[in-house]
Amino acid sequence: MAVIKSNLQTGSEAFAENKAFMTGLVAQLRDRLNQVRQGGGPDAIAKHRSRGKMLARERIERMVDPATAFMEFSPLAAWDMYDDDAPAAGMITGIGVVSGQECLIIANDATVKAGAWFPITGKKNLRAQEIAMENRLPIIYESRQWAENGGLTSYGRSLSDLDRRAATYVDKILEGAKPGDLPVEQPTKFELVINLKTAKQIGLTVPQRMLARADRIIR
Q1: Which of 91, 178, 191, 194 is deepest in the core (most CB within 10 A)?
Q2: Which option is the CATH number for 14-218: 3.30.465.10, 3.90.226.10, 3.30.450.180, 3.30.450.40?
Q3: Does the predicted model carry a pTM greater than 0.85?
């Protein structure tokens, strides 16, 4: 085997300067990643947990197989944008192993502006889907429409519940209330939808314990 010889002078002044500079960049990166992992902040997290809900990253951790890594994409999306009110663009995307199958996972962070989308959120979502298509990966998404249209599974806010909430807000506005005076409410009802047709097509067996928890199964 050929030996690659290095001319790197680890004791030189230039090496020390480069090392210090790179160490600073690594520390900065780790600090920024730690910041975005706090989601919408302590108050939003506490409010979310008070309703008995897991955080988006916690849901992903529970979803992937034990002792496997989750490779997150673009965690610094929206950094220095929107007055820093959109950590990770309010969305977590990446590849994780679920029941032995590598899957593209997309999860909205409800602690960031109650799960609202920003323009960069749409771009991040689209890029995640492109990666899945390029690498033939099944996608696990939050919206039930995703599973209904061929996605493997979805877990997220109940759209029917959100529609009912929106209707009450519209009613209040029509009665004279100012939109800015209405309280911002976090979603309280979530639903799990599993598409067994998609699972069969990709040769994936969905565990019975997961099927037992599903609110809807597409066969």
Answers
A1: 91
A2: 3.90.226.10
A3: no
